[in-house]
Amino acid sequence: MRILRWLFILLGVLFLGGIWYYFSQQNASREAVDASKTRTGANGQRGGPGGRVPVVAGVVQKRDVPIYLDGIGTVQAFNTVTFHPQTSGILTEVAFQEGQDVKKGDLLAVIDPRPLQAQLDGAVARKNQ
Questions:
Q1: pLDDT tens for each residue of 13-41
Q2: What CA–CA distance (Å, rounded) separates 119 from 88?
């Protein structure tokens, strides 16, 4: 039993050593290729692909950097509100704009009052009858 345990430990160490050797050889070959590329550029000059790059000095400025994101998609508001009127009817006027902050009691929309007025007049007439 003891020999079997030592055999498994030896096989595990050999396995881990093989993995380490494999990856260290891959890194060494990559570094050699990178070093040969930086010695001579694409046009035969020293300094990497494309030759030497001139260095230009600039003036240091403190300012905001604009961030532009171009893309195709839809935008959805973080908070949305759906409101339901107490009565139904045709909407004749909307008294707010999208994105505007509204408070409790603000006028949001105007519903056509003519059908509601006709219903009220009919109910009053039936009551008086």
A1: 999 998 888 888 777 666 666 665 555 54
A2: 13
Q: Is the dihedral of CA 84, 87, 89, 92 positive or negative?
A: negative
> For residues 74 and 32, what is the distance between their CA atoms, to the nearest angstrom?
48
Distance between CA atoms of residues 39 and 47, nearest Å: 7
Residue 66 CA to residue 44 CA, distance in Å, equals 40
Distance CA 12, CA 6 (A): 10
- Does the model's pTM come out above 0.85? no
Residues with Cβ < 8 Å from 113, sequence gap 6 or more?
none
φ, ψ of residue 92 to 5 degrees: the values are: -100, -25
Query: DSSP label at 49?
Result: T
Measured between alpha carbons, how far is 91 from 108 in angstroms, rounded to an integer? 11
The domain segmentation of the chain, as residue ranges, is 1-43, 91-128
